Amino acid sequence: MTLRRPTIGVFDSGFGGLTVLKVLLEIIPDADYIYFGDTARLPYGSKSVDTVARYAVEAAHYLESHGAELLVIACNTATALAFDQITAAARVPVIGVVDPGAEAAASVSKNKRIVVVGTEATVASHAYRKALESRGLAAREKACPLLVPLVEEGWIEHAVTEEIVRIYLCEAFADGFHDADVLVLGCTHYPLLKPVLRRVAPAHVTIVDSAESTARAVAGRIGKLLNRGENAQEERRSLPRLKFFATDSVDKFRRLGERFLGHPIEKVQHVDLKE
Ligand code: DGL
User: Fold this and answer.
1) Mutate to test the pocket of ligand 1, among 18, 73, 77 (most ligand atoms within 8 A of CB)
2) Residue 145 exposed, middle or buried by CB count within 10 Å (0-12, 13-18, 19+)
3) CB distance 191 to ligand 1 below 6 Å
4) What is the pLDDT of residues 213-225, one digit of tens each?
5) What is the pTM of this model?
6) pLDDT tens, position by position, 52-77
7) Nearest of 21, 24, 20, 257 to residue 154 by alpha carbon
8) 98-210, what's its fold?
9) Where do the structural domains in the chain lie, given as residue ranges?
Protein backbone atom coordinates (compact mmCIF):
# COMPACT_ATOMS: atom_id res chain seq x y z
CA MET A 1 0.00 0.00 0.00
CA THR A 2 1.38 3.42 -0.88
CA LEU A 3 1.59 5.92 1.92
CA ARG A 4 0.72 9.53 1.64
CA ARG A 5 1.42 12.12 4.29
CA PRO A 6 -1.54 14.49 4.47
CA THR A 7 -0.98 18.07 3.35
CA ILE A 8 -2.49 20.68 5.64
CA GLY A 9 -3.06 24.20 4.32
CA VAL A 10 -2.77 26.98 6.88
CA PHE A 11 -4.12 30.40 6.04
CA ASP A 12 -3.65 33.73 7.78
CA SER A 13 -3.73 37.42 6.92
CA GLY A 14 0.04 37.48 7.49
CA PHE A 15 2.60 36.17 9.96
CA GLY A 16 0.37 35.63 13.00
CA GLY A 17 -1.00 32.28 11.84
CA LEU A 18 2.50 30.91 12.29
CA THR A 19 1.59 30.66 16.00
CA VAL A 20 -0.96 28.04 14.93
CA LEU A 21 1.50 26.33 12.58
CA LYS A 22 4.02 26.21 15.44
CA VAL A 23 1.65 24.15 17.60
CA LEU A 24 0.56 22.04 14.61
CA LEU A 25 4.20 21.08 13.96
CA GLU A 26 4.57 20.06 17.59
CA ILE A 27 1.49 17.88 17.79
CA ILE A 28 1.16 16.67 14.16
CA PRO A 29 4.73 16.26 12.89
CA ASP A 30 3.62 13.49 10.51
CA ALA A 31 1.99 15.83 8.00
CA ASP A 32 3.22 18.30 5.39
CA TYR A 33 2.21 21.95 5.55
CA ILE A 34 1.64 24.78 3.14
CA TYR A 35 1.21 28.18 4.71
CA PHE A 36 -0.33 31.18 2.98
CA GLY A 37 0.19 34.64 4.52
CA ASP A 38 -1.72 37.43 2.80
CA THR A 39 0.83 40.00 3.93
CA ALA A 40 0.09 42.43 1.09
CA ARG A 41 -3.46 42.88 2.30
CA LEU A 42 -3.12 42.75 6.09
CA PRO A 43 -4.40 43.80 8.52
CA TYR A 44 -7.73 42.01 8.13
CA GLY A 45 -8.76 43.13 11.62
CA SER A 46 -9.94 46.55 10.47
CA LYS A 47 -11.62 45.43 7.21
CA SER A 48 -15.23 44.71 6.25
CA VAL A 49 -16.90 41.30 6.08
CA ASP A 50 -17.13 41.40 2.26
CA THR A 51 -13.46 42.24 1.79
CA VAL A 52 -12.20 39.67 4.30
CA ALA A 53 -14.48 36.99 2.82
CA ARG A 54 -13.23 37.69 -0.72
CA TYR A 55 -9.56 37.62 0.34
CA ALA A 56 -10.00 34.48 2.44
CA VAL A 57 -11.81 32.56 -0.31
CA GLU A 58 -9.03 33.44 -2.77
CA ALA A 59 -6.43 32.19 -0.31
CA ALA A 60 -8.40 29.00 0.34
CA HIS A 61 -8.55 28.27 -3.40
CA TYR A 62 -4.83 28.93 -3.69
CA LEU A 63 -4.04 26.44 -0.93
CA GLU A 64 -6.39 23.84 -2.42
CA SER A 65 -4.80 24.23 -5.83
CA HIS A 66 -1.43 23.53 -4.17
CA GLY A 67 -2.61 20.25 -2.67
CA ALA A 68 -4.12 21.15 0.71
CA GLU A 69 -6.40 18.34 1.87
CA LEU A 70 -7.54 20.19 4.97
CA LEU A 71 -7.68 23.94 5.48
CA VAL A 72 -6.89 25.56 8.80
CA ILE A 73 -8.11 29.14 9.00
CA ALA A 74 -5.57 30.34 11.55
CA CYS A 75 -6.73 33.95 11.30
CA ASN A 76 -9.31 34.79 13.94
CA THR A 77 -10.69 37.67 11.90
CA ALA A 78 -11.12 35.54 8.76
CA THR A 79 -12.75 32.77 10.80
CA ALA A 80 -15.04 35.18 12.63
CA LEU A 81 -16.15 37.04 9.52
CA ALA A 82 -15.99 34.52 6.71
CA PHE A 83 -15.98 30.93 7.99
CA ASP A 84 -19.26 30.05 6.26
CA GLN A 85 -18.18 31.58 2.94
CA ILE A 86 -14.82 29.77 3.06
CA THR A 87 -16.47 26.45 3.90
CA ALA A 88 -19.01 26.91 1.09
CA ALA A 89 -16.26 27.71 -1.42
CA ALA A 90 -13.83 24.97 -0.36
CA ARG A 91 -13.81 21.38 -1.61
CA VAL A 92 -11.87 20.10 1.42
CA PRO A 93 -12.69 20.19 5.16
CA VAL A 94 -12.13 23.54 6.87
CA ILE A 95 -11.28 24.17 10.53
CA GLY A 96 -11.36 27.67 11.96
CA VAL A 97 -10.10 29.01 15.26
CA VAL A 98 -13.32 30.24 16.88
CA ASP A 99 -15.10 26.98 17.70
CA PRO A 100 -12.02 25.22 19.12
CA GLY A 101 -11.29 28.30 21.26
CA ALA A 102 -14.88 28.44 22.53
CA GLU A 103 -14.86 24.71 23.19
CA ALA A 104 -11.66 24.96 25.24
CA ALA A 105 -13.07 27.92 27.20
CA ALA A 106 -16.24 25.94 27.93
CA SER A 107 -14.25 23.01 29.21
CA VAL A 108 -12.11 25.01 31.65
CA SER A 109 -14.53 27.67 32.92
CA LYS A 110 -16.13 26.96 36.26
CA ASN A 111 -18.46 29.96 36.45
CA LYS A 112 -19.20 30.15 32.71
CA ARG A 113 -18.08 33.76 32.37
CA ILE A 114 -15.51 34.46 29.69
CA VAL A 115 -13.53 37.44 28.41
CA VAL A 116 -12.39 37.29 24.76
CA VAL A 117 -9.81 39.66 23.29
CA GLY A 118 -9.38 40.15 19.53
CA THR A 119 -9.31 42.58 16.64
CA GLU A 120 -12.01 45.21 16.01
CA ALA A 121 -13.55 43.10 13.24
CA THR A 122 -13.55 39.87 15.27
CA VAL A 123 -15.22 41.60 18.18
CA ALA A 124 -17.75 43.41 15.96
CA SER A 125 -18.77 40.08 14.40
CA HIS A 126 -19.59 38.63 17.86
CA ALA A 127 -18.51 35.25 16.49
CA TYR A 128 -16.90 34.29 19.80
CA ARG A 129 -19.87 35.50 21.84
CA LYS A 130 -22.25 33.45 19.69
CA ALA A 131 -20.02 30.37 19.92
CA LEU A 132 -19.74 30.75 23.70
CA GLU A 133 -23.42 31.53 24.28
CA SER A 134 -24.40 28.46 22.26
CA ARG A 135 -22.37 26.47 24.83
CA GLY A 136 -24.14 28.15 27.75
CA LEU A 137 -21.41 30.69 28.61
CA ALA A 138 -21.63 34.46 29.00
CA ALA A 139 -18.99 36.46 27.12
CA ARG A 140 -17.49 39.92 27.20
CA GLU A 141 -15.59 40.70 23.99
CA LYS A 142 -12.91 43.37 23.97
CA ALA A 143 -11.19 44.79 20.89
CA CYS A 144 -7.47 45.42 21.44
CA PRO A 145 -6.40 47.02 18.13
CA LEU A 146 -3.05 48.31 19.40
CA LEU A 147 -1.69 44.86 20.23
CA VAL A 148 -1.12 43.58 16.67
CA PRO A 149 1.18 46.49 15.68
CA LEU A 150 3.02 46.28 19.02
CA VAL A 151 3.73 42.58 18.50
CA GLU A 152 4.85 43.17 14.92
CA GLU A 153 7.13 45.93 16.21
CA GLY A 154 8.69 43.34 18.51
CA TRP A 155 7.56 45.18 21.64
CA ILE A 156 6.72 41.97 23.45
CA GLU A 157 8.35 42.71 26.79
CA HIS A 158 7.99 46.47 26.76
CA ALA A 159 6.63 48.85 29.39
CA VAL A 160 4.33 50.52 26.84
CA THR A 161 2.82 47.19 25.81
CA GLU A 162 2.31 46.17 29.43
CA GLU A 163 0.53 49.45 30.17
CA ILE A 164 -1.73 49.09 27.13
CA VAL A 165 -2.55 45.49 28.06
CA ARG A 166 -3.37 46.71 31.58
CA ILE A 167 -5.81 49.31 30.24
CA TYR A 168 -7.51 46.86 27.87
CA LEU A 169 -7.87 44.11 30.47
CA CYS A 170 -9.05 46.57 33.10
CA GLU A 171 -11.88 47.60 30.76
CA ALA A 172 -12.59 44.01 29.73
CA PHE A 173 -12.88 42.69 33.27
CA ALA A 174 -15.03 45.65 34.46
CA ASP A 175 -18.81 45.98 34.85
CA GLY A 176 -19.93 42.57 35.95
CA PHE A 177 -17.12 40.61 34.33
CA HIS A 178 -14.55 41.02 37.12
CA ASP A 179 -15.22 37.40 38.09
CA ALA A 180 -14.81 35.95 34.56
CA ASP A 181 -12.47 32.99 34.98
CA VAL A 182 -11.22 32.49 31.40
CA LEU A 183 -9.46 34.84 29.01
CA VAL A 184 -9.60 33.66 25.38
CA LEU A 185 -6.82 34.91 23.11
CA GLY A 186 -8.88 35.52 19.96
CA CYS A 187 -6.09 36.82 17.73
CA THR A 188 -3.08 35.15 16.15
CA HIS A 189 -0.65 37.66 17.64
CA TYR A 190 -1.65 37.40 21.27
CA PRO A 191 0.10 34.10 22.11
CA LEU A 192 3.37 36.05 21.92
CA LEU A 193 2.04 38.29 24.68
CA LYS A 194 1.13 35.42 27.01
CA PRO A 195 3.77 36.32 29.64
CA VAL A 196 2.54 39.92 29.92
CA LEU A 197 -1.12 38.87 29.74
CA ARG A 198 -0.46 36.35 32.52
CA ARG A 199 1.13 39.05 34.69
CA VAL A 200 -1.65 41.55 34.12
CA ALA A 201 -4.80 39.36 34.05
CA PRO A 202 -6.47 38.64 37.40
CA ALA A 203 -4.69 35.75 39.12
CA HIS A 204 -7.77 33.47 39.09
CA VAL A 205 -8.04 33.63 35.27
CA THR A 206 -7.09 30.73 32.98
CA ILE A 207 -5.72 31.80 29.60
CA VAL A 208 -7.06 29.86 26.60
CA ASP A 209 -4.92 30.14 23.50
CA SER A 210 -7.11 29.50 20.46
CA ALA A 211 -3.99 28.54 18.46
CA GLU A 212 -3.44 25.56 20.77
CA SER A 213 -7.11 24.56 20.85
CA THR A 214 -7.24 24.71 17.04
CA ALA A 215 -4.15 22.58 16.58
CA ARG A 216 -5.72 19.97 18.87
CA ALA A 217 -8.97 20.10 16.85
CA VAL A 218 -6.93 19.54 13.67
CA ALA A 219 -5.17 16.57 15.29
CA GLY A 220 -8.60 15.09 16.02
CA ARG A 221 -9.67 15.45 12.37
CA ILE A 222 -6.41 14.51 10.71
CA GLY A 223 -6.48 10.89 11.88
CA LYS A 224 -8.75 10.08 8.93
CA LEU A 225 -6.19 11.42 6.48
CA LEU A 226 -3.26 9.47 7.89
CA ASN A 227 -2.89 6.26 5.92
CA ARG A 228 -1.96 3.14 7.76
CA GLY A 229 0.24 1.64 5.03
CA GLU A 230 3.19 -0.65 5.61
CA ASN A 231 5.67 2.23 5.14
CA ALA A 232 3.81 4.36 7.64
CA GLN A 233 6.39 4.27 10.39
CA GLU A 234 9.24 5.08 8.04
CA GLU A 235 7.40 7.91 6.33
CA ARG A 236 6.14 9.43 9.55
CA ARG A 237 9.60 9.59 11.00
CA SER A 238 10.70 12.02 8.31
CA LEU A 239 10.41 15.73 9.04
CA PRO A 240 7.39 17.70 7.85
CA ARG A 241 7.82 19.44 4.52
CA LEU A 242 7.00 23.12 4.86
CA LYS A 243 6.15 25.55 2.08
CA PHE A 244 5.47 29.20 2.69
CA PHE A 245 3.66 31.60 0.37
CA ALA A 246 3.34 35.33 1.01
CA THR A 247 1.69 38.08 -1.02
CA ASP A 248 4.20 40.77 0.06
CA SER A 249 7.97 40.87 0.66
CA VAL A 250 9.45 37.42 1.22
CA ASP A 251 12.33 38.93 3.21
CA LYS A 252 9.98 40.60 5.63
CA PHE A 253 7.99 37.36 5.92
CA ARG A 254 11.13 35.45 6.81
CA ARG A 255 12.26 38.08 9.31
CA LEU A 256 8.99 38.58 11.16
CA GLY A 257 7.76 35.05 10.64
CA GLU A 258 10.65 33.53 12.59
CA ARG A 259 9.45 35.34 15.69
CA PHE A 260 6.00 33.77 15.43
CA LEU A 261 7.16 30.30 14.37
CA GLY A 262 10.04 30.14 16.80
CA HIS A 263 12.54 28.80 14.27
CA PRO A 264 14.13 29.94 11.01
CA ILE A 265 12.04 30.09 7.85
CA GLU A 266 14.12 29.18 4.84
CA LYS A 267 12.20 29.47 1.63
CA VAL A 268 9.24 31.74 0.99
CA GLN A 269 7.59 32.04 -2.38
CA HIS A 270 5.98 35.30 -3.45
CA VAL A 271 2.40 35.06 -4.71
CA ASP A 272 0.66 37.70 -6.76
CA LEU A 273 -3.08 37.25 -6.36
CA LYS A 274 -4.91 39.10 -9.11
CA GLU A 275 -7.81 41.20 -7.85
N1 DGL B 1 -4.57 37.43 11.96
C2 DGL B 1 -5.43 38.44 12.55
C3 DGL B 1 -6.33 37.78 13.58
O4 DGL B 1 -6.05 36.73 14.12
C5 DGL B 1 -4.62 39.57 13.17
C6 DGL B 1 -3.88 40.42 12.16
C7 DGL B 1 -4.80 41.17 11.21
O8 DGL B 1 -5.60 42.02 11.65
O9 DGL B 1 -4.72 40.88 10.01
O10 DGL B 1 -7.39 38.32 13.87
Assistant:
1) 77
2) middle
3) no
4) 999 999 999 876 5
5) 0.93
6) 999 999 999 999 999 999 999 999 99
7) 257
8) Rossmann fold (3.40.50)
9) 7-96+213-270, 98-210
